[in-house]
Amino acid sequence: MASSPVQKLEGRIARAGRALLAAAACAFALGACMSVSTQKIAMVPVAAADSVYTIQLSRVVIAPLSNDSSVTLPAGSQWRRVGALPQGDVYRSQSGLFTVQTRRQGEAYVVATSGKVVGFYLPGEGAFMPLARPVTLPVEMRQ
């Protein structure tokens, strides 16, 4: 028995609906992968009277985020101390804009204490994003 044009149309609509549902599920899953926990916090900027403090990394640093992704800090990159949080000192890249992909991509500053990177300060969001675990900050040069 041949199928009617109505049955063919219903079949196409059903397949299109399933494809749309699958695409929405994938988009939701990808969005969840990028989400990382952040804490709203205000950075205390370095006072104008304070001396400039710069560090240079001796090797690549791979910083693990809480969403199973990671961020790479390049070897030889230079970072200037621009402020402080309760979690540690805040350093901004001197090599240009350094970004981290969260729900949206935004500028990020390194937060370090006791020779370890503990997270990132997101100035656009006024938030601290902790690492999954602290990593050693291999400093080659301090000024």
Sheet with most strands: 9 strands, antiparallel
Low-pLDDT parts are 24-34
What's the alpha carbon Rg, rounded to whole Å?
23 Å
- Count of helical stretches: 1
Structural class based on helices, strands and sheet pairing: alpha+beta
Strand content: 35-45%
The end-to-end distance, rounded to whole angstroms, is 84 Å
Walkthrough of the structure:
- The protein is of the alpha+beta class and 143 residues long.
- It is built from 1 helix and 13 strands, in the order αβββββββββββββ.
- Strands 1, 2, 3, 6, 7, 10, 11, 12 and 13 form a 9-stranded antiparallel beta sheet that branches. A two-stranded antiparallel ribbon has the order 4-5. Strands 8-9 form a two-stranded antiparallel ribbon.
- A hairpin with a 4-residue loop joins strand 11 (116-122) and strand 12.
- It is elongated and about 85 Å long.
